[in-house]
Design brief:
Strand order of the largest sheet: 8-7-6-9-10-11
Structural class: alpha/beta
Number of strands: 11
Length: 323
């Protein structure tokens, strides 16, 4: 029920369960913003959307909706009080959540079983996979997110034909936390030293003005500005077909991990060990400052120094590793 990156990392668990128990019926409870990504997964049998903007009325709706069904097991992957409450609403006799040491907001009081404590020195993808143990299921040698088949070949947007013809670098212009975002000056500096290749801007509508500012940078690269111009399936296809992506710890970054695209991730307030996109752990960049990782959505008065210290030349070096 969390943000896009958390939902994407949880999606691997669906195929891990289905590979061992093909007849399992999987229902996923999610908030509206992330329901679209789940619709792209062929092995999810049912999606229930919690209408969070409706407040208490939305909570009561979900309680009634869950009461109509009979679940055997609930897996609570979010570890907050909200997800714990809905886990309890499910009525499952087995409600499996995070160990008390890894949970927050008294989440554990709503569940009946817990995975072993892991701490922060494990990626979230691998942490979610530990939920297979109380189910008596093995962790597959090769994980699958269910998004791997989505590419630009199935996209009919006007810009798709141009991008199908040659490799491109994707710039992810923001995240859900202001503290995680690389300053626009960082992107300007990187764009100014990019070689002759295609660069695609990827972002939601909140970053349109930023993308328009970047279009004015003098660069040898060919710029394609798609900020605010793609739906979720098109975003997955663009990420899947990119040569490499650059940006902060974000949902699109975890989509890159899910589809096998390399991602140069710029870390500040969040720990890279926990959050590096799968398969791109060696491409991370993080500034060595004493306050990081602070895990705060808004920088506590230090001007996002952790992100500002990441220089464009450092980022370009990581891009060059991918070739």
């Amino acid at each position: 029920m969390g943000a896009l990156g958390d939902v994407v990392r949880g999606m691997y668990l669906v195929n891990s369960i289905k590979s061992a128990q093909p007849d399992a019926h999987i229902t996923w409870l999610v908030e509206p913003a992330c329901s679209g990504i789940l619709k792209l997964h062929p092995a999810i049998d049912e999606i229930i959307v919690f209408n969070r903007p409706k407040g208490l009325a939305g909570v009561l709706e979900i309680r009634r909706e869950l009461a109509k069904r009979s679940f055997d097991i609930t897996l609570d992957l979010q570890r907050h009080s909200k997800s714990g409450l809905f886990s309890w609403f499910s009525g499952s006799p087995r409600r499996i959540g995070f160990h008390r040491r890894d949970a927050k907001e008294f989440n554990w009081i709503f569940n009946t079983e817990y995975v072993d404590p892991q701490g922060e020195a494990i990626s979230k993808v691998d942490h979610y996979q530990t939920f297979l143990k109380p189910l008596g299921l093995p962790i597959p040698e090769r994980l699958s997110s269910g998004l791997e088949s989505i590419t630009l070949e199935g996209v009919e947007a006007p810009w798709a034909e141009q991008l199908r013809k040659k490799p491109y670098v994707g710039f992810i212009l923001g995240s859900s936390w202001d503290s995680k975002d690389w300053p626009v000056e960082g992107y300007e500096g990187l764009l100014s030293i990019m070689p002759e290749q295609t660069v695609v801007f990827l972002a939601d509508k909140t970053k349109v003005a930023m993308a328009e500012r970047l279009e004015k940078v003098k660069t040898r690269a060919t710029v394609v500005n798609l900020a605010g111009k793609t739906n979720l399936k098109e975003l997955v296809a663009l990420v899947s077909s990119a040569q490499v992506l650059v940006g902060p710890d974000s949902g699109p970054g975890h989509i890159a991990g899910a589809v096998g695209t390399k991602h140069v991730t710029l870390f500040g307030p969040t720990p890279w060990v926990r959050n590096a996109p799968r398969g791109s752990e060696d491409l991370t960049l993080t500034a060595n400052v004493g306050c990081a990782p602070c895990k705060r959505r808004v920088c506590p008065g230090l001007g996002k120094v952790c992100m500002k210290l990441i220089q464009p030349e450092m980022v370009l070096e990581r891009i060059s590793r991918v070739g």
